[in-house]
Amino acid sequence: MTPQSDEDEVWRQIVASFNEKAEDASADQPWPDRENVAVETVHEDGEAPEHEDEPRDEADDEPDGSAEQAADDEGHYVPPPPPPLPRGDALSRLSWVALFGGPAYLLLAALLEWPMEGWIVFTAVAAFIAGFVTLVVRMGDGPPSDSGWDDGAVI
Fold first, then answer.
1. How far apart are CA 57 and CA 34, in angstroms?
2. Contacts of 101 (CB under 8 A, 6+ apart)
3. How far is CA 110 from the centre of its chain?
4. Where are the transmembrane segments (predicted)?
5. Which residue in 27, 59, 142, 150 could disulfide with 67, CB within 3.0 to 4.6 Å?
């Protein structure tokens, strides 16, 4: 038998069994029956009926609603609080103010139709450029000074 004839036979079997009913899926169920979720009906008074034949969760036996809280907390990651933002030095803060303050003033003056003389426009544009250049120069492109002798993978 050739590999091609094996494939043809497999396809014939698939086509022949296309309209057949599938076997009961519960026989091949990869989990135990006690983990199946039962559909609950709600009475008119808003309470769910108690079924003794349904499996009970051990968390249901806990008093004071701690079972509900445990179910809500299960699987949720609560990250630790982030560290405070660094304050930065005065020059960095002044650079950020100049970077955003110059264009913000020009936009505000244009929207409110304030008179803009040449020296005001020049100062706002110069503040923007100076703030940008200062932040880029202070950014630094070298490795941190405390990185030790091994600077990692260098490409």
1. 10
2. 124, 127, 131
3. 39
4. 94-112, 118-137
5. 59
- Contact predicate 11/4, CB 8 Å: no
Query: In this structure, are residues 97 and 131 in contact, taking their beta carbons and an 8 Å threshold?
Result: yes
Contact 128, 94 (CB under 8 A): no
Token pair listed for 122? 């020049």
> What distance in Å separates the CA atoms of residue 82 and residue 80, rounded to the nearest whole number?
6
Q: What is the tens place of the pLDDT at every residue in 77-89?
A: 889 999 998 888 9
- Judge contact between 131 and 98, C-beta under 8 A: yes
pLDDT in tens, 4-43: 778 899 999 999 888 887 666 566 667 777 777 766 666 6
Which residues lie closer than 8 Å to 60 by C-beta, 6 or more apart?
A: 67
CB 7 within 8 A of CB 15: no
